[in-house]
Design brief:
The protein has 98 residues and is α+β, with helices and mostly antiparallel strands. The chain has a single domain, classed as Roll (Ubiquitin-like (UB roll)), CATH 3.10.20.30. Helix content is 22%, strand content 20%. The chain is built from three helices and five strands; from the N terminus they run E-H-E-H-E-E-H-E. The protein has a five-stranded mixed beta sheet with strand order 2-1-5-3-4, covered by helices on one side. The longest helix has 11 residues.
């Protein structure tokens, strides 16, 4: 069971609490977690990744175990703490402004 924490705007869109729990088939990677998240909450399709390129949207970041995973390959394995459910996979909305 993978725990995923979403930013407020995506929680509102999907009508979920701060954290969702997902069953991920096969190795736990950014891609497999996001695939499972979008399958369970279709309204999130295109909000986290581009529909065509599947690349992360510019104002979202991915974290796990206090590490920024945003620029890691999407098929790289997630840390054991995330796959065991001990730590969540965080999707964070970046803050921009002047």
């Amino acid at each position: 069971m993978i725990r995923v924490e979403l930013p407020a705007h995506l929680r509102t869109l999907a009508r979920v609490d701060r954290e969702v729990q997902l069953d991920v088939q096969g190795p736990a990677t950014q891609r497999s977690v996001l695939d499972a998240l979008e399958a369970r909450y279709p309204v999130l399709r295109g909000t986290i990744r581009d529909h065509v390129t599947q690349q992360r949207r510019p104002f979202l970041r991915f974290f796990a175990c206090q590490e920024d995973l945003s620029h890691e390959p999407p098929d790289a394995p997630l840390p054991d703490e995330v796959t065991s459910g001990k730590e969540p996979f965080l999707i964070i909305g970046a803050i921009a402004g002047g």
